[in-house]
Design goal:
Chain lengths: 114, 117
Amino acid sequence: KQEVTQIPAALSVPEGENLVLNCSFTDSAIYNLQWFRQDPGKGLTSLLLIQSSQREQTSGRLNASLDKSSGRSTLYIAASQPGDSATYLCAVRPTTDSWGKLQFGAGTQVVVTP
Amino acid sequence: ETGVTQTPRHLVMGMTNKKSLKCEQHLGHNAMYWYKQSAKKPLELMFVYNFKEQTENNSVPSRFSPECPNSSHLFLHLHTLQPEDSALYLCASSQDRLVGANTGELFFGEGSRLTVL
């Protein structure tokens, strides 16, 4: 059974510092991996999706890498801002027929202090 | 309206009540999902519908009853719930024919916060 782990569970950094969030998964047979952001009491906002054939995806200050063979993905957020404070979740889609059956990690709660 | 919308945003109910959560997606997707998010636990998939047909029931108790009248609307009917069912219920949608450039990216609504007294 696929297990997704996010370490650390919580992270606090001063404004301007780069953020590095880790996601690991036990089964490398994935179709894609998606990173989400969740603000308190709100739904999930999709940030980046990496296909299994890709090594990285970029959007603005966000960069996500994928090393499928070692079961790891990393989300980098450059020059963090207080508005980046949120919980970040990663999720893997195991197979092409898995109809949205994403396996989620528990998330990393990020606080960026001014 | 764009994206995925859920109503109500907050719901408080007693254990003998019957209520429903509603989800509507305006993205033209063919698959919709209910996820449950409890405190300190990863998101749990509850139900999957594609083309209005239920394809997944992830061992969810019968006190939760989904309904998908068309590919844009999804309901979760609730009855005789337990306090441990208190959670954030999230609806999501995707275009889930994984062919060509389609990635099956999931889009979520804002959630319905349910409290069972």
